# Entry
Amino acid sequence: MTTPRPAPLTRDAYRHLRRIELRWNDADRFGHVNNAVHQALVDSAINAWVIGTGTADARHDPVIPLVVETRCRFFAELDYPGAAEIGLRVAHLGTTSLGYEAGIFAEGAGEPAAQLLFTHVYVDRVTRRPAPIPPALRAALAALAP
Amino acid sequence: MTTPRPAPLTRDAYRHLRRIELRWNDADRFGHVNNAVHQALVDSAINAWVIGTGTADARHDPVIPLVVETRCRFFAELDYPGAAEIGLRVAHLGTTSLGYEAGIFAEGAGEPAAQLLFTHVYVDRVTRRPAPIPPALRAALAALAP
Amino acid sequence: MTTPRPAPLTRDAYRHLRRIELRWNDADRFGHVNNAVHQALVDSAINAWVIGTGTADARHDPVIPLVVETRCRFFAELDYPGAAEIGLRVAHLGTTSLGYEAGIFAEGAGEPAAQLLFTHVYVDRVTRRPAPIPPALRAALAALAP
Amino acid sequence: MTTPRPAPLTRDAYRHLRRIELRWNDADRFGHVNNAVHQALVDSAINAWVIGTGTADARHDPVIPLVVETRCRFFAELDYPGAAEIGLRVAHLGTTSLGYEAGIFAEGAGEPAAQLLFTHVYVDRVTRRPAPIPPALRAALAALAP
# Structure
C-alpha cells in the first residue's frame, strides 16, 4: 500500500448523520455495495444537507459547487438489504473552496465502512470561474464545524 | 394515448410499504426523478421484502426470479431531496410466475407518483428453465395478498 | 402469465440503432443486467437521438417530454462485459404524445433481449400542462417511422 | 485547496483505452456528468480489462479484488450525449495489492476530464483476508506497465 492510513473517524466525530436505504443494484456480483456507490451516497448527503439549510437552489443559483477532488478509503463492506448512515463535517473552509469529511456507516455502527473527502469549489454557473462561497451557506456551515 | 388508464391504487391498497430515500443523481436535468429510477425502487423494495421473509438467499438459491415484464404508469413527478414509499401487493400468483403491483408515493402522499406491475418467473439458477415458486416463499406471499 | 406475448420485433424492424457499452454495475448478483437498466438504456438512446436531431435542448426548451408510461418485456439476459444496441422506431405520433418502440439487443444479435414501449407526453416546462410536440421534432420523427 | 496538484497525465500516458458511451442519467441538474459516475466508469473499464485477459471469472474466482482506496481529481466537465474514453495503466504492483491510474477523457481529447487512482487488494472470496494476486493476472498486468 502506498498511502499512509490514519485511523478512521468514528460516528461521534460527525456533526450530521443522514440515513439512506441501500438498493438492490448498489450491490455487485462480489456480494457487496459497489465502490462507486459510496461517492453517490456522500454526494447525495451533502446536497441534501445544503438544500436543507435553505441557502441553495440547485436549479437557479448563480454560483454552484463543482467537485474538484474526492478521496475514499474503504474499511468494511456494506450489503443490501440495509441502510447506510452518512456522517458529515467540514474539513476545511476557504474563500471559494470547501472540504467535507464524510463517513459511511452500516446502520447503527460506530466504525465506518468508508471515509471520504469531498472538495468543492464554488463557481459561477455560466462562466465556471471560481466565486466566493455564498455568505448564507458559509454561515450555515458552522453547524458542520468539527 | 393508446392505453386505457384505470384509476391508480391509493396507498391503503398496499399490504407493505417501504421507505427509500431519494438520491441526488436520481433526478435528471428536467428537475425530477428519472423514469428508470422507478423500476429500481420497486425492484429494491420487492427484493428486500422477499429477503426479509427469510425464504430466499439471492447468492445461493437454486431457484431464482427473473423479471419477464414490467409496466409503469406515471401520475406525478418525484423530486430530490425527499423519500419515496413503495407499496407492494400480489396481483397474481401462478405455479412458476408471480405478479407484483407496486405504487410509488412521495413520502406521506395518498395518491401515487407511479404504479407498476412486475412479473417474475422463477427459474433454475443454472438452466434458466421455469421452476415452481419455492413453497416457503409462496406461503410468505399470503401477507401481500390484496 | 397474464399478458399476451406477441413475437418481439427483430433488429431490422428498427430505424435507428445506438450502441451503449454495458457497465460493471449494470449487472446484479443474479449474474445479468438488472431489469431497471433496460429503461435507462432506452431513455438514454431516445434522448441522444432527439438531441442529435438538433431540434431539442434539454436545458432550455419551453416544452419538454415527460414519460407517462413504459412497458418492457424481457426475452433474454444481457451480461457485462459487452455492449447493447438499442433500436428505435415510432409506434404512434399524436398531437401532444408520442410512443417509441425500442428493442435492446446484445451486440450483433438479431433477436432482442428486451422490447419496450415508451410513451412521452410533451408539456410546458413550467406549468407541466400538455403542449403540442414541437414542429421541428415532429418533422425529424419521420426518420423513425416504421 | 489542501492537495498539491501535479499536472494530469495525457492520453498517450496510458496503455489501454476503453470507450464508454455516456448516459442520460449520468448527468445531473448542474448540467454535467455527476462526480460519482467517474468511479463507475473506471471500475467498469478495469473489470472489463481484467475479464478480457481471460485470467479472471468474477463469479467463481477464489481470490477477488476489493477496492481499498480511490482518489479522483477533476479537471473538466463531461456532458451527455457523448462518450468517455478511459485510459488505464498500472501505478504500483505489490504482492497482494495493485494500483491503477486511470484517466477519463472526453472522446478524442488529449487532456483528461479526471484522473483517478484505484487501489485493489486481492482477498480470499470467503474469508476476505489478503491473498496473492493470481499469477496469470500478474503476468497479464505487464501490458499495463507504464
In short: Chain A touches chain B at residues 18-21, 23-25, 31, 40-41, 43-44, 47-48, 51-52, 59, 80-81 (CB under 8 Å). Residues 35-52 of chain A form the longest helix (18 residues).
